[in-house]
Amino acid sequence: MNAKTADKIATGVIYCLVGIVVLILVFLIGFILWTGLPYVSWDFLTGSANAMGGSGGIGDQLFNSFYLLLLTLLISFPIALGAAIYLSEYAKQNWFTDLIRITIEVLSSLPSVVVGLFGFLLFVIQFKLGFSIISGAIALTFFNLPILTRNIENSLQDVPNLQREAGMSLGLSKWRTVIKVVLPVALPGILTGIILSAGRVFGEAAALIYTAGQSSPSINYGDWNPLNPTSPLNIFRPAETLAVHIWKINSEGVMPNANQISAGTSAVLIIAILLFNFLARWLGGRLYRRITASK
């Protein structure tokens, strides 16, 4: 077999494998949307769940999912940004830096149920936070921190050294070079990493079952005092998210139309995650073109 024939065969095999992956993804996403979208309506998106009656919507679960995501990003992003700047710009290549990177790799590969049990024992039991939004947000921070740190570090390392040398040659200190030169150039990649990690956090269930709880008490959307128990902003109330809602109604089996509600909730969850991904690509590309002045 000559080199050209081998190259054509290898290329064909690669295209076939890529096609198989794409077909699996299209089938999976298409099946979830096909079976779930007929049950999605405005009442379904804004109504409250009624487990015994077999009706209602996912309004509370949808709000809880976005609220938990926001709190998780507020906690995890500053920590991940600081760690990534240290690893990319200040850390020397020695055994200590390698140990930090190995620790991050190990943390990122931990099963989410292990993170949930850790959060349950530490935050729910030891710190007496109970099943609450803040317990879930901190557990998701442990889950999200390694991924976000690696994404931001990779974005900072992709910035050419010429940018750093140009900043230093203008008399800027290393810290101001990082803040004024490196971070703005790396911003599209950082933003893409944040949104992609947000999509993963949004669909997480196992870690939240043990920390945020499996119930969603009555919420008064007219009360925005975060200290009141029925306020949607109260971080010490239990909060059932979309992913936990799907797991719960299928495991309990008390809701007569559990399959329909589960299918509709799955469709909403998939659409939200797809929007995160498309938004990441659109916003990252737009920021890159704006910063680099390219078309």
Automatic annotation (TrEMBL):
It comes from Pediococcus claussenii (strain ATCC BAA-344 / DSM 14800 / JCM 18046 / KCTC 3811 / LMG 21948 / P06). It comes from the Bacteria. NCBIfam families: 3a0107s02c (TIGR00974). One of its GO terms (cellular component) is plasma membrane. Keywords: Cell membrane, Membrane, Transmembrane, Transmembrane helix, Transport. InterPro entries: MetI-like (IPR000515), MetI-like_sf (IPR035906), Phosphate_PstA (IPR005672). It is found in: Cell membrane. The keyword Cytoplasm does not apply. It is a multi-pass membrane protein. This is Phosphate transport system permease protein PstA. The keyword Cell membrane applies. Residues 62-280 form the ABC transmembrane type-1 domain. The chain crosses the membrane at residues 12-34, 66-87, 99-123, 129-148, 178-198, 261-280. Belongs to the binding-protein-dependent transport system permease family. CysTW subfamily. It holds the Pfam family BPD_transp_1. One of its GO terms (molecular function) is phosphate transmembrane transporter activity. GO terms for biological process: phosphate ion transmembrane transport. Its main location: membrane. Gene3D superfamilies: MetI-like (1.10.3720.10). The gene is pstA.
